[in-house]
Design a protein that fits this description.
By secondary structure, the chain is of the alpha+beta class. Helix content is 37%, strand content 22%. Among the domains are: 97-131, no CATH class; 355-455, no CATH class. A hairpin with a 2-residue loop joins β11 and β12.
Amino acid sequence: MKNYRVVLIAFIACFAFSYAKAQTNNEGKEVAEYRRSSLQMLLLESDKFPKKEVVIGSYNNYLETKFPQKYNRHSVGSETFDVKITEKDFVDAGFLKDTIKSPVAIMGLKNGPLKNEVRWLGADSTKAMMFPSSSDSNMVKIGKFMKESNIAKQLVAKWYNKSSEGVCNYDLVMQRGMYGTGILGTNNQELKDLLNQDLDIVANTFVVINKLKFLENEPVAKVLLIAALLKAEEIKVPQLKEKAIELAQAGYEKAKEGYTVWTTSYLYQLDWNADVFAKFKTTFLDDSKIDLKAAWDTTQMFKMKFIGESKASSLVLFSLKEKRTLEQIIDMALTRNIDNVFTNLQKDFVTFRPVTPIISGEPMTAAIGLKDGLEPGQSYEVVELGLNKEGVKVWTSIGSVSVDKKMPIWDNRAGAEFEPVLGEDGLPITTPAFSNFKGGNVKYKPSQAYIRLKK
């Protein structure tokens, strides 16, 4: 049996290497396939979106054509949602309970900027309760959505291909864990034992919920225009005054169009550990004699855990090279902002950092760029997917590299062709579709070596 296990491990390692070369993405294009985290993206809708149907359409287009390729798309159900919350929802979430009684605090509230953000209590308004902040409200909405949709259960159901009768299998876990697919068969107990130990495959399942806020540029541009015109009126020389007014008007015309978009992204992870898996395995994977459908419908064992949040903003203006429609402006602003906030999430939370396959080892190159937050001198670790002594696949660090400060970084941002990075000569910098790293080595082989943000 021990020899058989050694052969099995060797076979899986060889299969995983060949399997890493020919998969397709959502568009049917061939892309490198490798072990990566899985991701569900959701949009928290708002009635304040400009042309709400355009924003939602742009978001859906982002998911279909620009979904982050460093994650497996693990979508369940609708990818946008809107939840109406009541006072009871706030109370259930722990808000609207603390009463402010201090005379000094009450006086400060009545005369301060927060006077409209409290509920006054009593006929003489000697007590008050703070209303939840906008961020608090978003969290309450998300919590209500997750509870009502039971999204954690949906994610697990997709992982184990749950049938309508509650029967589960290992097919997707085996495939994404890079243990093969359909070669050894899921009835092989040796392979099942490996999959049962490799909890990270399913544990690295994330949900990112995006809350977008669109602000028209025109009101801000008008304020700046008025200030510039007032300043121009102080100029005594007529020709200079006329030129200053002309420049102010030109600046206003350029700045007034488009939107500034603020995004707050909330990161959640499937709460999947040895205890949860043991309960799941005993009930749904072992040959139990219970009513699987009834067990699935009533189980409450699956949960999500909140990791944190990140924010980003982006400004999209009128282009001198093309006249953008409102739809184009919204699409570019949305795309840029989601890309930016993903970069922030990856920098802020180590567990969410993806791996990127290298193109070459010496010189070291990889298809990663400005869109991914790449900065000169940034440190990356070089990792490879190996096997531990039990035969379970694990990422192992084999070296480190840094972004080459002397070479231009690939500009892969949305709309980069219209607003390129300029060199010292004022001309656009053109680069191939990859960036360069210092510290490369011929021992780092494509399809075997990957890089991951270190700090």
